[in-house]
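User: Okay, second chain of the day. Same drill as before: sequence in, structure tokens out.
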Amino acid sequence: MGAITKTEAGNFLLTAYDEYGKRIRKTFKLRKDATALLAKTEEQKRQRGLVNSKLTRKRVCFDSAIRAFLNSKSSLSPKSITKYNFTTKQFQYYLNSEGLTFLDEFTSDHATTLQAKLMEGSIDKSGETITPSPKTINGFISTIKALFSDEVNKAHIDRNPFAHIKNLKEEKPRPEFYTVDELNNFFNVEMKDEYRNAFLGLFYTGVRFGELANITWDDIDLNKKLLFIRPKVDHKLKTNNAQRTIPIPKPLFDLLNKLSQNKKSEIYPFCSVEGKQIRERRLLEVCKRIGTEAGITERVFIHKFRHTYATMLIQRKIDITEIQKLMGHASIIETMIYVHVKTEELHETVNVLSNIIIEQIADEFPKIELPVFPWGNIQNLREESLRKMVEDALIHFYKQHNLFN
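Assistant: Same drill. Structure tokens below.
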């Protein structure tokens, strides 16, 4: 047990030994401060004694847990790592504000309070309240929930304090896409060849920016007119299905054929002005500037070319399963979000049924029960397990009733 003595100068000297047997000598102006440190030291010694006697588990602090969590994400893309670093840093601000040091101090009430604070938003320098979207809040909570799940798996804590937290409802907007006029106006704007090549590559292949930036000449087969999207040492694809082969349309083939004869870069066909790997931020700046000059009033961004690629294939009645393969979607449901034709455009389509006698069809086909799913809007499905469940259920249904051709 430590001791607190009053010095001739009127201060209070604490003499004690920590949990490792190291002596502590510290002077305080107030006795209560010395008493607080002594109590903390004795509690740490008590906890260590319980751990050594196997009567309790060792307490894990958030600093070490977060460090281990981030280390487990080190193989992800730089963009993903940045997201995890940002989220955990913001979480540590919350922990500091609540005075929380150890994992077992964080309760379900803290989890509820954290989600509520995120929904309240924050006030920026101009005095305006900035409220994150439900998608942003869900992403934040999901990351911290994963942190605690790791600690449960390591037996550092008994349960996840975020287990009761449900995702906020997200209003999933339809994908934005460029119209034909907007595309023509966009490409009529004067720009450097390297930027034009990148935008044409995005439009004619529907690839994600990260995929485009990592395409090398080895990924292009001009003889077979094929483009191969595959993982690289420093670039991982979004999903396993993202590894795919894309036929090269004639305008893009002509461009690549010309570029191959006078390469600006020996590595990247879609390169920067300096002949290096193209950067997303720089290309986005150029994209927005050109969009303004082209008179495009709607939002202008790089990923919109991918939306445009899928939408225009849908509008030209390309089979949706083929579009799924070209887009590298893990599920057909991801591709279905591009089916956003206007109702009035469907009249011509359904008119093909005009000369069919409905009564005969009713007699020829038996009445069957349609499969019922426990959710209302299939577009709101987010988890891969549910997506797979839907597909398996539909396939089973069609096979059961011999509805396959």
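The chain is about 45% helix and 5% strand.

User: Thanks, on to the next one.
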